[in-house]
Amino acid sequence: MSTQATAGADAPVLESWIGGRSVPGSTGQFYPDINPATGELLGRTSVAGAAEVDLAARTAYEAFKKWRLTPAPRRGEILYRIAQLIQERKEELARLMSREMGKVLFEARGDVQEAIDEFYYMAGEGRRLFGFTTPSEMPNKFAYTVRDPVGVVGLITPWNFPIAVPSWKLAPALIAGNAVVWKPAEDTPLVSLEFVKLMEEAGLPPGVVNVVLGPGKQTGVPVVEHPLIRVISFTGSTQTGRAISVEAARLGKRVTLEMGGKNAITVMDDANLDLATEAILWSAFGTTGQRCTAASRLLVHEAVVDELQERLVEGVQKLRLGNPLDEDTNVGPIVNEKQLTRVHGYVEVGRQEGAQLLTGGETVQEGELAQGYFYRPTIFTRVSPDMRIAREEIFGPVAVIIPVKSLEEAIEINNDSEYGLSSSIFTQDVNKAMQAARDLTTGIVYINHGTTGAEVHLPFGGTRGTGNGHREASVQALDSFTEWKTVYIDYSGRLQRAQID
Ligand code: UN1
Protein backbone atom coordinates (compact mmCIF):
# COMPACT_ATOMS: atom_id res chain seq x y z
CA MET A 1 0.00 0.00 0.00
CA SER A 2 1.07 3.55 -0.60
CA THR A 3 1.54 5.27 2.73
CA GLN A 4 2.52 8.80 1.91
CA ALA A 5 1.60 11.73 4.11
CA THR A 6 -2.06 11.88 4.92
CA ALA A 7 -3.98 15.08 4.76
CA GLY A 8 -5.57 15.52 8.13
CA ALA A 9 -6.40 11.89 8.95
CA ASP A 10 -4.16 9.04 10.01
CA ALA A 11 -5.48 6.65 7.38
CA PRO A 12 -3.03 6.29 4.48
CA VAL A 13 -3.55 8.01 1.16
CA LEU A 14 -3.93 5.42 -1.59
CA GLU A 15 -2.60 6.31 -5.01
CA SER A 16 -2.82 4.81 -8.47
CA TRP A 17 -0.03 2.47 -9.59
CA ILE A 18 1.34 3.30 -13.02
CA GLY A 19 4.55 2.00 -14.57
CA GLY A 20 5.63 0.49 -11.25
CA ARG A 21 5.17 3.57 -9.10
CA SER A 22 2.57 5.48 -7.08
CA VAL A 23 0.89 8.35 -8.84
CA PRO A 24 -1.40 10.79 -7.00
CA GLY A 25 -4.71 11.69 -8.59
CA SER A 26 -5.02 15.06 -10.26
CA THR A 27 -8.70 15.49 -9.41
CA GLY A 28 -7.83 16.72 -5.91
CA GLN A 29 -10.62 14.50 -4.60
CA PHE A 30 -10.41 11.73 -2.02
CA TYR A 31 -12.64 8.69 -1.65
CA PRO A 32 -12.88 6.87 1.69
CA ASP A 33 -11.98 3.19 2.01
CA ILE A 34 -14.17 1.95 4.87
CA ASN A 35 -14.25 -1.40 6.67
CA PRO A 36 -17.97 -2.25 6.35
CA ALA A 37 -17.98 -4.36 9.52
CA THR A 38 -16.66 -1.65 11.83
CA GLY A 39 -16.88 1.67 10.03
CA GLU A 40 -13.07 2.05 10.40
CA LEU A 41 -11.41 4.27 7.80
CA LEU A 42 -8.72 2.14 6.15
CA GLY A 43 -7.46 4.64 3.65
CA ARG A 44 -8.30 7.62 1.49
CA THR A 45 -8.05 7.14 -2.22
CA SER A 46 -6.51 9.98 -4.15
CA VAL A 47 -8.95 9.90 -7.06
CA ALA A 48 -7.41 9.47 -10.52
CA GLY A 49 -8.84 11.45 -13.42
CA ALA A 50 -8.33 11.69 -17.16
CA ALA A 51 -4.66 12.72 -16.76
CA GLU A 52 -3.71 9.57 -14.82
CA VAL A 53 -5.75 7.37 -17.14
CA ASP A 54 -3.89 8.89 -20.07
CA LEU A 55 -0.55 8.25 -18.37
CA ALA A 56 -1.61 4.69 -17.57
CA ALA A 57 -2.75 4.03 -21.15
CA ARG A 58 0.44 5.43 -22.69
CA THR A 59 2.59 3.55 -20.18
CA ALA A 60 0.69 0.36 -20.97
CA TYR A 61 1.10 0.93 -24.68
CA GLU A 62 4.88 1.26 -24.34
CA ALA A 63 5.03 -1.88 -22.16
CA PHE A 64 2.82 -3.73 -24.64
CA LYS A 65 5.41 -3.32 -27.41
CA LYS A 66 7.85 -5.54 -25.50
CA TRP A 67 5.35 -7.78 -23.74
CA ARG A 68 3.72 -8.93 -26.98
CA LEU A 69 7.14 -10.07 -28.24
CA THR A 70 7.95 -11.99 -25.08
CA PRO A 71 7.33 -15.62 -26.09
CA ALA A 72 4.00 -16.80 -24.71
CA PRO A 73 5.57 -19.71 -22.76
CA ARG A 74 7.83 -17.15 -21.04
CA ARG A 75 4.78 -15.02 -20.26
CA GLY A 76 3.27 -18.22 -18.90
CA GLU A 77 6.21 -18.69 -16.53
CA ILE A 78 5.55 -15.25 -15.07
CA LEU A 79 1.88 -16.09 -14.65
CA TYR A 80 2.94 -19.30 -12.93
CA ARG A 81 5.13 -17.34 -10.51
CA ILE A 82 2.23 -14.95 -9.87
CA ALA A 83 0.08 -17.97 -8.95
CA GLN A 84 2.82 -19.22 -6.60
CA LEU A 85 3.18 -15.85 -4.91
CA ILE A 86 -0.59 -15.47 -4.46
CA GLN A 87 -0.54 -18.92 -2.89
CA GLU A 88 2.19 -17.86 -0.46
CA ARG A 89 0.30 -14.69 0.45
CA LYS A 90 -3.15 -16.26 0.43
CA GLU A 91 -3.91 -15.61 4.09
CA GLU A 92 -2.63 -12.05 4.03
CA LEU A 93 -4.66 -11.18 0.93
CA ALA A 94 -7.76 -12.89 2.29
CA ARG A 95 -7.58 -10.91 5.55
CA LEU A 96 -7.08 -7.65 3.74
CA MET A 97 -10.04 -8.42 1.46
CA SER A 98 -12.20 -9.33 4.44
CA ARG A 99 -11.41 -6.04 6.17
CA GLU A 100 -11.93 -4.01 3.07
CA MET A 101 -15.20 -5.39 1.70
CA GLY A 102 -16.60 -7.57 4.47
CA LYS A 103 -16.48 -11.05 2.96
CA VAL A 104 -16.16 -13.69 5.68
CA LEU A 105 -12.63 -15.03 5.95
CA PHE A 106 -13.19 -18.55 4.63
CA GLU A 107 -14.91 -17.09 1.57
CA ALA A 108 -12.15 -14.54 1.10
CA ARG A 109 -9.71 -17.45 1.07
CA GLY A 110 -11.86 -19.02 -1.66
CA ASP A 111 -11.77 -15.78 -3.64
CA VAL A 112 -7.96 -15.77 -3.51
CA GLN A 113 -7.90 -19.49 -4.36
CA GLU A 114 -9.90 -18.77 -7.51
CA ALA A 115 -7.13 -16.37 -8.59
CA ILE A 116 -4.45 -18.98 -7.88
CA ASP A 117 -6.38 -21.51 -9.98
CA GLU A 118 -6.89 -19.02 -12.80
CA PHE A 119 -3.24 -17.96 -13.00
CA TYR A 120 -2.00 -21.57 -12.95
CA TYR A 121 -4.55 -22.47 -15.59
CA MET A 122 -3.75 -19.56 -17.90
CA ALA A 123 0.01 -20.06 -17.39
CA GLY A 124 -0.44 -23.38 -19.19
CA GLU A 125 -2.18 -21.57 -22.05
CA GLY A 126 1.21 -19.99 -22.79
CA ARG A 127 2.22 -23.31 -24.35
CA ARG A 128 -1.02 -23.66 -26.28
CA LEU A 129 -2.76 -20.47 -27.45
CA PHE A 130 -3.88 -22.67 -30.31
CA GLY A 131 -4.63 -21.38 -33.74
CA PHE A 132 -5.22 -23.79 -36.61
CA THR A 133 -3.98 -24.68 -40.06
CA THR A 134 -6.22 -25.70 -42.89
CA PRO A 135 -5.56 -26.52 -46.57
CA SER A 136 -5.56 -23.71 -49.06
CA GLU A 137 -7.76 -24.02 -52.13
CA MET A 138 -4.67 -23.20 -54.25
CA PRO A 139 -1.64 -25.38 -54.93
CA ASN A 140 1.60 -24.30 -53.23
CA LYS A 141 -0.15 -22.07 -50.79
CA PHE A 142 -0.41 -22.48 -47.03
CA ALA A 143 -2.72 -20.93 -44.45
CA TYR A 144 -2.70 -20.70 -40.67
CA THR A 145 -4.25 -18.63 -37.91
CA VAL A 146 -2.83 -17.07 -34.76
CA ARG A 147 -4.34 -15.18 -31.85
CA ASP A 148 -2.85 -11.70 -31.70
CA PRO A 149 -3.15 -9.53 -28.61
CA VAL A 150 -5.42 -6.53 -29.03
CA GLY A 151 -3.00 -4.07 -27.38
CA VAL A 152 -4.07 -2.14 -24.31
CA VAL A 153 -7.18 -3.45 -22.60
CA GLY A 154 -9.27 -1.70 -19.95
CA LEU A 155 -10.56 -3.80 -17.05
CA ILE A 156 -13.31 -2.47 -14.80
CA THR A 157 -14.01 -4.80 -11.91
CA PRO A 158 -16.37 -5.05 -8.92
CA TRP A 159 -15.78 -5.18 -5.17
CA ASN A 160 -17.62 -8.45 -4.50
CA PHE A 161 -14.84 -10.72 -5.86
CA PRO A 162 -11.94 -8.25 -5.71
CA ILE A 163 -9.22 -10.78 -6.55
CA ALA A 164 -11.05 -13.59 -8.38
CA VAL A 165 -12.95 -11.54 -10.96
CA PRO A 166 -9.96 -9.36 -11.92
CA SER A 167 -7.96 -12.57 -12.33
CA TRP A 168 -10.51 -13.92 -14.82
CA LYS A 169 -9.64 -10.90 -16.95
CA LEU A 170 -5.99 -10.26 -16.09
CA ALA A 171 -4.68 -13.78 -16.67
CA PRO A 172 -6.12 -14.26 -20.18
CA ALA A 173 -5.32 -10.67 -21.19
CA LEU A 174 -1.71 -11.11 -20.07
CA ILE A 175 -1.05 -14.55 -21.48
CA ALA A 176 -2.30 -13.31 -24.85
CA GLY A 177 0.28 -10.48 -24.75
CA ASN A 178 -1.89 -7.46 -23.89
CA ALA A 179 -1.05 -4.68 -21.47
CA VAL A 180 -3.67 -3.51 -19.00
CA VAL A 181 -5.25 -0.45 -17.48
CA TRP A 182 -7.23 -1.77 -14.53
CA LYS A 183 -9.83 0.27 -12.67
CA PRO A 184 -10.84 -1.75 -9.63
CA ALA A 185 -13.93 -0.90 -7.61
CA GLU A 186 -13.60 2.21 -5.47
CA ASP A 187 -14.48 0.07 -2.42
CA THR A 188 -11.42 -2.20 -2.74
CA PRO A 189 -8.32 -0.11 -3.55
CA LEU A 190 -6.02 -1.70 -0.94
CA VAL A 191 -6.37 -5.27 -2.04
CA SER A 192 -6.03 -4.21 -5.70
CA LEU A 193 -2.77 -2.37 -5.00
CA GLU A 194 -1.41 -5.36 -3.13
CA PHE A 195 -2.30 -7.54 -6.08
CA VAL A 196 -0.58 -5.42 -8.75
CA LYS A 197 2.56 -5.08 -6.63
CA LEU A 198 2.61 -8.83 -6.10
CA MET A 199 2.43 -9.35 -9.87
CA GLU A 200 5.44 -7.13 -10.39
CA GLU A 201 7.29 -8.88 -7.58
CA ALA A 202 6.65 -12.15 -9.40
CA GLY A 203 8.37 -10.77 -12.49
CA LEU A 204 5.70 -8.93 -14.46
CA PRO A 205 7.43 -5.95 -16.07
CA PRO A 206 6.21 -2.62 -14.62
CA GLY A 207 3.76 -0.91 -16.96
CA VAL A 208 2.18 -4.14 -18.20
CA VAL A 209 -0.55 -3.76 -15.56
CA ASN A 210 -1.45 -0.27 -14.36
CA VAL A 211 -4.04 0.45 -11.70
CA VAL A 212 -6.08 3.64 -11.70
CA LEU A 213 -8.05 4.30 -8.53
CA GLY A 214 -11.33 6.09 -8.13
CA PRO A 215 -15.07 5.92 -8.80
CA GLY A 216 -16.64 5.27 -12.19
CA LYS A 217 -17.51 8.84 -12.97
CA GLN A 218 -14.05 10.30 -12.41
CA THR A 219 -11.84 7.32 -13.27
CA GLY A 220 -13.92 4.73 -15.15
CA VAL A 221 -15.29 7.08 -17.80
CA PRO A 222 -11.83 8.19 -19.03
CA VAL A 223 -10.81 4.51 -19.24
CA VAL A 224 -13.79 3.78 -21.48
CA GLU A 225 -13.06 6.87 -23.59
CA HIS A 226 -9.29 6.60 -23.98
CA PRO A 227 -8.37 6.01 -27.64
CA LEU A 228 -5.43 3.68 -26.86
CA ILE A 229 -7.68 1.34 -24.86
CA ARG A 230 -9.28 -0.93 -27.45
CA VAL A 231 -11.21 -3.39 -25.31
CA ILE A 232 -13.28 -2.75 -22.22
CA SER A 233 -13.99 -5.78 -20.05
CA PHE A 234 -16.52 -4.92 -17.40
CA THR A 235 -18.11 -6.77 -14.50
CA GLY A 236 -20.63 -4.90 -12.38
CA SER A 237 -24.09 -3.43 -12.38
CA THR A 238 -26.42 -3.61 -15.34
CA GLN A 239 -26.91 0.13 -15.30
CA THR A 240 -23.18 0.89 -15.60
CA GLY A 241 -22.63 -1.93 -18.09
CA ARG A 242 -25.31 -0.59 -20.39
CA ALA A 243 -23.84 2.93 -20.22
CA ILE A 244 -20.39 1.54 -21.08
CA SER A 245 -21.90 -0.40 -23.93
CA VAL A 246 -23.46 2.71 -25.47
CA GLU A 247 -20.23 4.68 -25.17
CA ALA A 248 -18.13 1.80 -26.52
CA ALA A 249 -20.46 1.46 -29.51
CA ARG A 250 -20.06 5.17 -30.23
CA LEU A 251 -16.27 4.81 -30.09
CA GLY A 252 -16.21 1.52 -32.01
CA LYS A 253 -14.63 -0.46 -29.17
CA ARG A 254 -15.05 -4.06 -28.23
CA VAL A 255 -16.79 -4.44 -24.91
CA THR A 256 -17.43 -7.53 -22.84
CA LEU A 257 -20.02 -7.23 -20.12
CA GLU A 258 -20.76 -9.39 -17.11
CA MET A 259 -23.69 -7.90 -15.24
CA GLY A 260 -26.63 -8.87 -13.11
CA GLY A 261 -28.36 -12.07 -12.21
CA LYS A 262 -31.69 -13.18 -10.78
CA ASN A 263 -30.70 -16.78 -10.31
CA ALA A 264 -33.22 -19.41 -9.35
CA ILE A 265 -33.02 -22.70 -7.51
CA THR A 266 -35.83 -25.12 -8.34
CA VAL A 267 -36.70 -27.65 -5.66
CA MET A 268 -38.83 -30.55 -6.89
CA ASP A 269 -41.10 -32.69 -4.71
CA ASP A 270 -38.62 -35.59 -4.85
CA ALA A 271 -35.59 -33.48 -3.85
CA ASN A 272 -33.22 -34.30 -1.03
CA LEU A 273 -34.43 -31.49 1.22
CA ASP A 274 -31.43 -31.57 3.57
CA LEU A 275 -29.13 -30.97 0.65
CA ALA A 276 -31.40 -28.38 -0.94
CA THR A 277 -31.66 -26.43 2.33
CA GLU A 278 -27.90 -26.33 2.78
CA ALA A 279 -27.35 -25.30 -0.83
CA ILE A 280 -29.97 -22.54 -0.66
CA LEU A 281 -28.49 -21.07 2.51
CA TRP A 282 -25.04 -21.04 0.91
CA SER A 283 -26.20 -19.70 -2.44
CA ALA A 284 -28.55 -17.04 -1.08
CA PHE A 285 -26.61 -15.76 1.92
CA GLY A 286 -22.97 -16.57 1.16
CA THR A 287 -21.05 -13.34 0.46
CA THR A 288 -24.13 -11.76 2.11
CA GLY A 289 -26.01 -12.41 -1.14
CA GLN A 290 -23.65 -10.07 -2.98
CA ARG A 291 -22.76 -12.38 -5.83
CA CYS A 292 -23.89 -12.27 -9.45
CA THR A 293 -24.57 -15.95 -8.96
CA ALA A 294 -26.54 -15.57 -5.72
CA ALA A 295 -29.79 -17.52 -5.56
CA SER A 296 -32.50 -14.94 -5.12
CA ARG A 297 -35.48 -16.91 -6.42
CA LEU A 298 -36.52 -20.27 -4.99
CA LEU A 299 -39.01 -22.11 -7.18
CA VAL A 300 -40.37 -24.70 -4.81
CA HIS A 301 -42.82 -27.47 -5.63
CA GLU A 302 -45.99 -26.82 -3.64
CA ALA A 303 -45.87 -30.33 -2.13
CA VAL A 304 -42.68 -29.49 -0.24
CA VAL A 305 -42.93 -25.74 0.19
CA ASP A 306 -44.09 -25.78 3.84
CA GLU A 307 -41.43 -28.23 4.90
CA LEU A 308 -38.65 -26.44 3.06
CA GLN A 309 -39.71 -23.07 4.48
CA GLU A 310 -39.51 -24.46 7.99
CA ARG A 311 -36.01 -25.82 7.39
CA LEU A 312 -34.84 -22.58 5.80
CA VAL A 313 -36.08 -20.43 8.66
CA GLU A 314 -34.41 -22.76 11.13
CA GLY A 315 -31.21 -22.63 9.08
CA VAL A 316 -31.23 -18.84 8.78
CA GLN A 317 -31.62 -18.47 12.51
CA LYS A 318 -28.45 -20.49 13.02
CA LEU A 319 -26.40 -18.24 10.73
CA ARG A 320 -24.06 -16.11 12.81
CA LEU A 321 -23.70 -12.54 11.71
CA GLY A 322 -20.49 -10.93 12.79
CA ASN A 323 -17.09 -9.56 12.02
CA PRO A 324 -15.96 -11.35 8.87
CA LEU A 325 -12.51 -11.85 10.38
CA ASP A 326 -13.97 -14.11 13.12
CA GLU A 327 -13.66 -17.71 11.99
CA ASP A 328 -17.14 -18.60 13.27
CA THR A 329 -18.97 -15.83 11.43
CA ASN A 330 -21.26 -17.11 8.67
CA VAL A 331 -22.54 -13.83 7.27
CA GLY A 332 -20.65 -10.56 7.10
CA PRO A 333 -21.87 -7.02 6.44
CA ILE A 334 -23.15 -5.45 3.26
CA VAL A 335 -20.36 -3.57 1.50
CA ASN A 336 -21.47 0.01 2.13
CA GLU A 337 -24.28 2.22 3.29
CA LYS A 338 -25.64 2.84 -0.19
CA GLN A 339 -26.08 -0.89 -0.81
CA LEU A 340 -27.61 -1.39 2.63
CA THR A 341 -30.20 1.28 1.90
CA ARG A 342 -30.90 -0.26 -1.49
CA VAL A 343 -31.40 -3.75 -0.04
CA HIS A 344 -33.75 -2.48 2.65
CA GLY A 345 -35.60 -0.48 0.00
CA TYR A 346 -36.33 -3.74 -1.84
CA VAL A 347 -37.56 -5.34 1.36
CA GLU A 348 -40.01 -2.46 1.72
CA VAL A 349 -41.09 -2.99 -1.88
CA GLY A 350 -41.68 -6.69 -1.12
CA ARG A 351 -43.87 -5.83 1.86
CA GLN A 352 -45.89 -3.36 -0.21
CA GLU A 353 -46.29 -5.91 -2.98
CA GLY A 354 -47.93 -8.23 -0.47
CA ALA A 355 -45.21 -10.86 -0.17
CA GLN A 356 -45.08 -12.65 3.17
CA LEU A 357 -41.91 -12.01 5.18
CA LEU A 358 -40.71 -15.30 6.69
CA THR A 359 -37.57 -14.07 8.39
CA GLY A 360 -35.23 -11.06 8.46
CA GLY A 361 -36.18 -7.76 6.85
CA GLU A 362 -34.17 -5.43 9.06
CA THR A 363 -30.75 -4.00 9.77
CA VAL A 364 -28.87 -5.19 12.84
CA GLN A 365 -28.81 -2.56 15.57
CA GLU A 366 -27.40 -4.51 18.52
CA GLY A 367 -23.94 -4.22 20.04
CA GLU A 368 -20.84 -3.86 17.93
CA LEU A 369 -22.65 -4.82 14.76
CA ALA A 370 -24.51 -1.52 14.84
CA GLN A 371 -21.22 0.12 13.77
CA GLY A 372 -21.24 -1.82 10.49
CA TYR A 373 -23.65 -2.35 7.61
CA PHE A 374 -25.28 -5.57 8.78
CA TYR A 375 -28.60 -6.83 7.46
CA ARG A 376 -30.49 -9.92 8.58
CA PRO A 377 -30.77 -12.71 6.01
CA THR A 378 -34.26 -12.31 4.63
CA ILE A 379 -36.74 -14.70 3.02
CA PHE A 380 -40.10 -13.79 1.52
CA THR A 381 -42.67 -16.39 0.59
CA ARG A 382 -45.93 -16.50 -1.39
CA VAL A 383 -44.18 -14.38 -3.96
CA SER A 384 -45.61 -14.20 -7.44
CA PRO A 385 -43.29 -14.12 -10.45
CA ASP A 386 -44.41 -10.66 -11.53
CA MET A 387 -43.46 -8.89 -8.28
CA ARG A 388 -40.46 -6.57 -8.45
CA ILE A 389 -38.66 -8.56 -5.73
CA ALA A 390 -38.97 -11.60 -8.02
CA ARG A 391 -37.67 -9.81 -11.10
CA GLU A 392 -35.05 -7.22 -10.13
CA GLU A 393 -31.55 -7.94 -8.88
CA ILE A 394 -31.31 -7.00 -5.18
CA PHE A 395 -27.64 -7.93 -4.61
CA GLY A 396 -28.04 -8.59 -0.93
CA PRO A 397 -29.19 -11.27 1.52
CA VAL A 398 -32.76 -11.53 0.24
CA ALA A 399 -34.38 -14.61 -1.31
CA VAL A 400 -37.97 -15.08 -2.45
CA ILE A 401 -39.97 -18.29 -2.55
CA ILE A 402 -42.30 -18.80 -5.51
CA PRO A 403 -44.41 -21.95 -5.16
CA VAL A 404 -44.74 -23.99 -8.39
CA LYS A 405 -46.91 -26.93 -9.46
CA SER A 406 -44.64 -28.67 -11.96
CA LEU A 407 -41.20 -28.83 -13.50
CA GLU A 408 -42.52 -27.13 -16.63
CA GLU A 409 -43.82 -24.20 -14.62
CA ALA A 410 -40.50 -23.87 -12.77
CA ILE A 411 -38.57 -23.85 -16.03
CA GLU A 412 -40.87 -21.25 -17.49
CA ILE A 413 -40.50 -18.93 -14.49
CA ASN A 414 -36.76 -19.54 -14.36
CA ASN A 415 -36.38 -18.51 -18.00
CA ASP A 416 -38.77 -15.58 -17.86
CA SER A 417 -36.16 -13.20 -16.52
CA GLU A 418 -34.26 -10.22 -17.78
CA TYR A 419 -31.13 -12.08 -16.64
CA GLY A 420 -29.65 -15.48 -17.43
CA LEU A 421 -26.55 -16.25 -15.40
CA SER A 422 -27.05 -19.42 -13.41
CA SER A 423 -29.81 -21.76 -12.39
CA SER A 424 -30.11 -24.90 -10.34
CA ILE A 425 -32.47 -27.80 -9.77
CA PHE A 426 -32.78 -30.26 -6.94
CA THR A 427 -34.37 -33.54 -7.98
CA GLN A 428 -33.48 -37.20 -7.68
CA ASP A 429 -35.19 -38.03 -10.95
CA VAL A 430 -32.62 -38.25 -13.74
CA ASN A 431 -35.24 -37.56 -16.39
CA LYS A 432 -36.27 -34.30 -14.74
CA ALA A 433 -32.64 -33.32 -14.26
CA MET A 434 -31.85 -33.92 -17.93
CA GLN A 435 -34.94 -32.04 -19.05
CA ALA A 436 -33.93 -29.09 -16.86
CA ALA A 437 -30.34 -29.14 -18.17
CA ARG A 438 -31.76 -29.02 -21.70
CA ASP A 439 -34.43 -26.37 -21.14
CA LEU A 440 -32.99 -23.89 -18.60
CA THR A 441 -31.73 -20.99 -20.69
CA THR A 442 -28.98 -19.68 -18.40
CA GLY A 443 -25.24 -19.68 -19.10
CA ILE A 444 -24.62 -22.01 -16.17
CA VAL A 445 -26.89 -24.83 -14.92
CA TYR A 446 -26.32 -26.79 -11.73
CA ILE A 447 -27.95 -30.12 -10.92
CA ASN A 448 -28.24 -30.90 -7.20
CA HIS A 449 -25.94 -28.01 -6.36
CA GLY A 450 -26.63 -24.33 -5.57
CA THR A 451 -26.22 -21.49 -8.07
CA THR A 452 -22.63 -20.61 -7.12
CA GLY A 453 -19.40 -22.52 -7.47
CA ALA A 454 -17.93 -21.81 -10.89
CA GLU A 455 -14.56 -23.43 -11.67
CA VAL A 456 -11.95 -21.48 -13.61
CA HIS A 457 -11.48 -23.86 -16.52
CA LEU A 458 -15.15 -23.77 -17.50
CA PRO A 459 -16.92 -20.88 -19.22
CA PHE A 460 -18.57 -18.36 -16.90
CA GLY A 461 -21.21 -15.98 -18.16
CA GLY A 462 -24.87 -15.49 -18.81
CA THR A 463 -27.56 -15.07 -21.40
CA ARG A 464 -30.02 -12.20 -21.96
CA GLY A 465 -29.33 -9.07 -19.86
CA THR A 466 -26.52 -10.70 -17.88
CA GLY A 467 -23.95 -10.24 -20.59
CA ASN A 468 -23.29 -9.64 -24.23
CA GLY A 469 -22.43 -13.09 -25.47
CA HIS A 470 -18.88 -13.64 -24.29
CA ARG A 471 -17.60 -15.92 -21.54
CA GLU A 472 -15.02 -15.44 -18.80
CA ALA A 473 -12.48 -17.83 -17.28
CA SER A 474 -11.96 -21.00 -19.40
CA VAL A 475 -10.13 -20.92 -22.72
CA GLN A 476 -13.08 -18.97 -24.14
CA ALA A 477 -11.89 -15.92 -22.17
CA LEU A 478 -9.11 -15.53 -24.72
CA ASP A 479 -11.72 -14.47 -27.27
CA SER A 480 -12.25 -11.23 -25.33
CA PHE A 481 -8.61 -10.24 -25.51
CA THR A 482 -7.37 -11.45 -28.90
CA GLU A 483 -7.80 -10.77 -32.58
CA TRP A 484 -7.64 -13.70 -34.97
CA LYS A 485 -5.02 -13.19 -37.62
CA THR A 486 -5.12 -15.33 -40.75
CA VAL A 487 -1.82 -15.72 -42.59
CA TYR A 488 -1.64 -16.93 -46.22
CA ILE A 489 1.76 -17.93 -47.60
CA ASP A 490 1.97 -18.38 -51.32
CA TYR A 491 5.06 -20.31 -52.40
CA SER A 492 4.00 -20.92 -56.00
CA GLY A 493 6.01 -17.99 -57.30
CA ARG A 494 3.11 -16.74 -59.39
CA LEU A 495 -0.10 -14.74 -58.88
CA GLN A 496 -2.85 -17.12 -57.77
CA ARG A 497 -6.24 -15.50 -57.52
CA ALA A 498 -8.68 -17.01 -55.03
CA GLN A 499 -12.15 -17.57 -56.45
CA ILE A 500 -10.86 -16.64 -59.93
CA ASP A 501 -8.25 -19.17 -61.05
C1 UN1 B 1 -19.55 -13.21 -9.19
O1 UN1 B 1 -20.51 -13.34 -8.46
O2 UN1 B 1 -19.32 -12.11 -9.74
O3 UN1 B 1 -19.36 -19.23 -8.87
C2 UN1 B 1 -18.55 -14.27 -9.43
C3 UN1 B 1 -19.26 -18.32 -8.07
C4 UN1 B 1 -17.90 -17.72 -7.84
C5 UN1 B 1 -17.72 -16.51 -8.73
C6 UN1 B 1 -18.85 -15.54 -8.70
N1 UN1 B 1 -16.90 -18.70 -8.10
O4 UN1 B 1 -20.21 -17.87 -7.47
General description of the model:
The protein is an alpha/beta fold and 501 residues long. The protein folds into 2 domains: 4-259 and 467-485, Aldehyde Dehydrogenase, Chain A, domain 1 (3-Layer(aba) Sandwich), CATH 3.40.605.10; 263-447, Aldehyde Dehydrogenase, Chain A, domain 2, CATH 3.40.309.10. 37% of the residues lie in helices and 21% in strands. The protein is built from 14 helices and 22 strands. The strands form 6 sheets. A 7-stranded mixed sheet has the order 15-16-17-14-13-19-20, sandwiched between helices. A 5-stranded parallel sheet has the order 10-9-8-11-12, sandwiched between helices. Helix 1 crosses helix 7 (216-225) and helix 3 runs antiparallel to helix 6 (189-201). It is globular and about 80 Å long. Bound molecules: 2-aminohexanedioic acid. 2-aminohexanedioic acid binds at residues 114, 160-161, 164-165, 291-293, 452-454.
